[in-house]
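Extended Data, panel c. Modelled sequence:
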Amino acid sequence: MTRDDILDAAAQVFRQKGFHGASMSAIADAVNLQKASLYHHVTSKQEILLALLDRALVMLTDHIAAIAAQSIPADQKLRQMIRAYLSALAENGDLTAVLLFEHRSLDKKSHARHVPQRDKFEGLWRDVLNEGVRTKVFDCPDTGMTVRTLMGVMNWTLTWYRPEGGKSIDEIADGYADLLFHGLLK
């Protein structure tokens, strides 16, 4: 039994029951450990939650940073970033659900440690939007609001997307990018 096994199981338990509804016993059961044995690997649910949030942000940041660093026009970067982000959400549903829906359960100390990592991730998106404004590809008077809007739309996808549904994750991503780039008006 490794710490990664415990974190994987905890992500699933948190997604199913929510952070507050999950117990250390449920996590221990999910990895076939006694509750006392679980405490040899982790000290608390709060530690597990922070570790899961860190894991999710590192994974997502790595995916997005690689695209943001490419020498291609900002609109192409943004489209690829949207695709990569939605794919990562869909492929890592338990982990990303914890990031998106359970971060509010962090205690104050853990929250203070988490926020700079979250801001770094959001900064990658803002930087690409600002690059697009500088190069006259985008007309975006408030990149911060645009990033929050885009994150909200993409994050909510995790609640309704089904792989067996009518659209692939890439089709959904392209639909979001088209809506962002072209709006609703003719």
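The domain at 45-182 is CATH 1.10.357.10 (Tetracycline Repressor; domain 2). This feature is highlighted in the accompanying rendering.
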